[in-house]
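Service request form, structural biology core

Requester: graduate student, group of Dr. S.
Request type: structure prediction, single chain
Budget code: on file
Notes: please return the result as structure tokens.

Sequence provided:
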Amino acid sequence: MSGPFEIRKAGIDQIETIRRLSREIWMEVYPSIISVEQIAYMLDLIYSADALKHQIHEQGHTFILLTENDTPIGYASFSKKEPITNGLFRLHKFYLQPAYHGKGLGKGMLNEIIKDVISQSGNSLELNVNKYNPTVGFYKKIGFSIISEEVIDIGNGYVMDDYIMELKPLKYPI
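Core staff response, request fulfilled:
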């Protein structure tokens, strides 16, 4: 990326930034897909400081931040798929402020992830996405395929109704 946009690795020092971005983005995007109560529950479950530290330290997630003139506007995380499989990586989080959608920035973020995954001998990237999330179209446009569906009970009476999508083989740039 060039110009005022920069992608950089994020770590423990950026946890509060990631938490803030997640609340802002989720509360803007997801109320048309899931209830505000489920959003709050999931943010507490997945984005507490302890949960993010666990993802980084124990689960080996790599986080990146996208900034515009040093202001964070998006983030993502990925890791090798556990249990370790033959070159399969998992995209866990991929979020961008809605005001920046359609400008090629998501594709830029994904290219940075793919470059990193390929450098680690990765050959495919898998993700879960809510079936009703408009981002499904973005993923299809750049080459992801739906490989299955799953409903995940996340507790408290809530479920995630997802597609599992895969990008294989990986090529850089997309």
